[in-house]
Amino acid sequence: MLTKALDASISGVIITDNQQPDNPIIYCNKAFETISGYGRDEIIGHNCRFLQKEDRQQPQRKALADAIKNGESISVEIRNYRKDGTLFWNELNMSPIKDDRGKTCYFIGVQNDVTRRKKAELDLQHQKDVMERKVEERTRSLRENEEYLASIVQTVRESLVVLNPDLKVLSVNDHFIKTFKVTREETEGALLYELGNGQWNIPRLKELLESILPTNNPVLEFEVEHDFPHIGKKLMLVNAHRVELEGQYRDRILIAIEDVTDRREIERRKDDFLSIASHELKTPLTTIKGYVQLMHKLMPEDIGEKFKEILRKTGLYVERLNTLIAELLDVSRIQTGNIELHREQFNFDKMVYETVENMQAAQQSHQIIISGNAAETYFGDESHIVQVVNNLISNAIKYSPDATEVEVHLSRVANYIKLSVKDKGMGISPEYHKRIFERFYRVGEIQQRFPGMGIGLYICDQIIKNHGGTLWVESELGKGSTFSFTLPMQERTPNEQ
Ligand code: ADP
Q: What's the pTM value of the predicted model, to 2 decimals?
């Protein structure tokens, strides 16, 4: 019954006799034959090692030999080979059978073919290895990216702060620490408004920062002038954006702070110089102008033509110099906010027609064609508007040396006066359409060919803005430009100035 029971088992069972040399197998059940592919005749009398064929280097073999030598139980998973040479994983449990004196007489080996499980395990392990390698690679590249970003963040010459949605400082870069002479410990983790002596606790800034996350609207060029702890009075320019990673907005705010104290100081000095220089130049020029007028008056009747011509030209150049200096003075007045408007009621159309007439009189190269009507009465600073019209027409002529015409068109659009000056000159490429209205800005290529200081349009823009209007350009490179402005018509009386 026992033998039958053993033969019915699906586990292979063998018994080895350890009292005989080389521990031969003295019994095997049916399942063992099935698992190994050998017949009972080929099994009995052999040492178990025939199951490993040439695969002798497995560490499990040494463990088995030690257990058998010491008469101990052991469980191993070992590579075995069937009679036909195919591999199978054998889960082998060996238990000693000892006599009364404790001497090991036999070993019973119970085995199961766990090839399938083993293969699944090995596949799993392989997958795990592949995954681990991938994770490792990805981590390395992430770390590299992080280091790369960190090195940029640490090198930029701007102070950077990252905030969480509660406006708590998550991190700052080295430049921030150096600029504000603070420690990382006192900064990171604190609320932005609690830093230093409350320099960022400005209601308007707070409002703007708090609306970044809900609206995605950045804070641009916000100026903070403050007496900072450790570093004193400084002017800081603040820009803040919502952090965007791989096209996704995060709940983080990045603030970039730039110390513009020195830059502003240099600009201020330049403005001061401009203002002083133009004032200093104006005084002797006024005297020269007076003398030229006096010479005109005192000129004897019979004076030679040559002398008359020289005097006329002198007057012309003095006038040109006067305009240039007046423009410089205008710029410095605009800078200091000292430009005054003297508003009066005047006939706008008449003013434009007269200005064109005067310009045409002093102008041979181009014909100035004027058309349209805008308004007979307008309330504004006439001399300033004349300056704008003058400037736009002068530019149109100056920058269209190969053309012969310039068009001026007046119209009324809704409640606005509109004036356009159109030339068929060199034109301006789109990237400069905004910049030409900045002071001292001139489009690079024309610097040498045409004289100028790059302030005309700046002044025009300011004058039009002061009247509540807008000035703009439409232009295509090589085709010509049209400068236009609109001015709102206001029903005002002079008392309302
Ligand atoms: P300036 O003429 O003294 O340089 P402006 O402020 O009047 O200064 O003009 C600024 C710049 O705008 C000029 O240098 C020129 O590059 C460009 N610009 C102005 N008007 C025209 C125009 N009609 N056609 C082409 N470029 C123009």
A: 0.61
E-strand ranges in 291-414 read: 344-346, 367-372, 378-380, 405-413
What Cα–Cα distance (Å) separates residue 46 from each residue in 9, 40, 234, 383? Answer: 22, 11, 95, 123
| Tens digits of residue pLDDT in 430-465 | 999 999 999 889 997 776 788 888 999 999 999 999
Question: Which of 395, 397, 440, 484 has most ligand 1 atoms within 8 Å of its beta carbon, as the pocket-test mutant?
Answer: 395
CA dist 331 and 337 (Å) reads 10
Distance (angstroms) between ligand 1 centre and the Cα of 433 equals 10
Measured from the CA of 454, which atom of ligand 1 is nearest?
Answer: 8
Nearest to 388 by CA among 482, 278, 485: 485
Ligand 1 centroid to Cα of residue 50, in Å, is: 99
Instruction: Write down the pLDDT at residue 447.
Output: 67
Tens digits of per-residue pLDDT, 388-407? 999 999 999 999 999 999 99
pLDDT, tens digit, 9 for 90 and up, residues 474-483: 999 999 999 9
Sorted by sequence, the CB contacts under 8 Å of residue 367 that are 6+ apart come out as 360, 404, 405, 406
Q: From CA 330, how far away is CA 191, in angstroms rounded?
A: 45
